[in-house]
Specification:
Two copies of one chain form a homodimer.
Chain A (H helix, E strand, L loop, with lengths): L2 H12 L5 H7 L4 H13 L3 E8 L8 E9 L2 H10 L3 E7 L5 E7 L2 H11 L3 E13 L10
Antiparallel strand pairs in A: 2-4, 2-5, 3-4
Helix pairs in contact in A: 2-3
Chain A binds a DNA duplex through helix 2 and helix 3.
Protein name (chains A, B): AsnC family transcriptional regulator
Keywords (chains A, B): DNA-binding, Transcription, Transcription regulation
Pfam family, one (chains A, B): HTH_24
DNA sequence: GTTGAAAAAACAGAGGA
DNA sequence: TCCTCTGTTTTTTCAAC
């Protein structure tokens, strides 16, 4: 994991579909060398996935919320969450609440309806997202 | 946005670097047709980015936390957050707190140090992530 | 949306610093 | 060990239909 790997990861973080040939031009290194470095980063588990980011709005999801949840039936609750299409992320957390989940719904009304279905498992505190100053900032230290 | 587009998005969500040729085989459609559909999804803004997901652990970030924050100097606070490498996501939210941020640090101690640097802007409540039952579930309705 | 040819990129091997 | 060079295979692009 040297400077070159950092540069590779910085580019890939925002442009996963970039051709290796173009990436190799950007960092002034031969194609096979870059391919090998990327392969190793995958093998080492540094790269965990290549994902396509979709617009919630364009898919009809106009409301984003984080929901704090308190439950005493963790196993059942997790099974419920896995099957709930509204929930994209689920975290077990410290503090007064057990869980934090990121929820996408069509409207605030469908969020309310979703919360109602949750309430057999425990108690919720929804935090509605008003705006996103930024999201998905790169983890890689930009050494420039 | 028909069934085929949904299928394309479902595959791309988890495999952004898949060759179009392989994707076209999976959905039994010619390559140029799939290329054109993907191009339109990008143009329409349904696809917003192709990202590479990295392992925080492998990059030395062993602590994940969500931090609720209350500030009265929003503009300064956002400028601070943009420059803070620990913060990967920042959301403005409803409720008692103004902001929710996702923070990655090396240890819980470096989280504490980070929170100290925040406290000139307001008051924080950190929620440490103990585990992630799941993350990044697909938005696309899987119609199978 | 499909087919088919040309261009480009990815891959796999041999050799060198 | 890591990189470069080169030939082969695969993928992408672009034409015509």
């Amino acid at each position: 994991m040297d400077q070159i790997d950092h540069k590779i990861l910085t580019v890939l973080h925002d442009h996963a579909r970039i051709p290796i040939s173009e990436l190799s031009r950007m960092i002034a290194m031969s194609q096979p060398a870059v391919t090998e470095r990327v392969r190793k980063l995958e093998e080492q588990g540094v790269i965990t996935a290549y994902r396509t980011e979709l617009s919630p709005q364009k898919l009809g999801k106009h409301t984003t919320a984080f929901v704090l949840f308190k439950t005493s039936v963790c196993k059942d609750f997790i099974a419920f969450c896995e099957r709930a299409p509204e929930i994209v992320d689920l975290y077990r957390i410290s503090g007064e609440y057990n869980y934090l989940m990121k929820v996408l719904t069509e409207t605030t009304e469908s969020l309310a309806a979703f919360l109602d279905t949750c309430h057999v498992y425990g108690f919720s505190t929804p935090l509605i997202v008003l705006s996103k100053p930024f999201e998905n900032k790169s983890l890689v230290p930009s050494t420039e």
